[in-house]
Design goal:
The chain has 144 residues and is α/β, with parallel strands linked by helices. The chain has four helices and seven strands, in the order E-H-E-E-E-E-H-E-H-E-H. It has a five-stranded parallel beta sheet with strand order 2-1-3-6-7, sandwiched between helices. The chain has a two-stranded antiparallel sheet with strand order 4-5. The structure holds flavin mononucleotide.
Length: 144
């Protein structure tokens, strides 16, 4: 399958998740393209069998880097997507907001979502909980 991953990551927590997912998808023989949302044009999103969008919660919203990108996406009727979110508070607010935007406004179809609550090392990019890589590898198995 062709998988496109679009992410933004301020400290690298979300990027670590993306890298783990990328590695696992490649091990399984899939083609993966990774796009940094802050350096890309949403109108040029390449075709894919599944899109994975990854972004943190910031200020009770979707982190601005990926939010701007998602808002500018064209209509994506019926295209499948999965979500990754990291957040410091108990609720993964950005996850619900990304889903609302992509399913309701862009008409995409959600196939999976995963989120991690980060700890106080998040600002050093080391906030992910123990075992996050195994959780992500298992998550990938459920998608492809
Ligand atoms: C400016 C800013 C605002 C944030 N606001 C929230 C928030 O409202 N809720 C929350 O759960 N986490 C919040 N966080 C924590 C981030 O979601 C968390 O550190 C995340 O893992 C960052 O991911 P990244 O390293 O991929 O950017 C905030 C972080 C920053 C820097």
């Amino acid at each position: 399958m062709n998988i496109v991953i679009v992410y933004s990551s301020r400290f690298g927590n979300g990027k670590k998740c993306v890298d783990t997912v990328d590695e696992q998808l490649r091990i399984k023989g899939h083609e993966v393209k990774i796009i940094n949302a802050q350096k890309a044009d949403p109108s040029q999103l390449p075709p894919a069998d599944i899109y994975i969008f990854s972004g943190a919660t910031e200020a009770f919203n979707i982190a601005v880097g990926i939010r701007r990108y998602l808002k500018k996406l064209p209509q994506m009727d019926g295209k499948k997507y999965a979500l990754i979110c990291t957040h410091a508070m108990n609720r993964a607010i950005a996850l619900n907001k990304m889903e609302k935007l992509l399913s309701k406004k862009k008409k995409m179809v959600k196939v999976a979502a995963i989120d991690f609550k980060v700890n106080n090392k998040a600002q050093q990019g080391n906030g992910l909980p123990e075992g996050y890589e195994d959780s992500l590898r298992e998550w990938v198995e459920g998608i492809v």
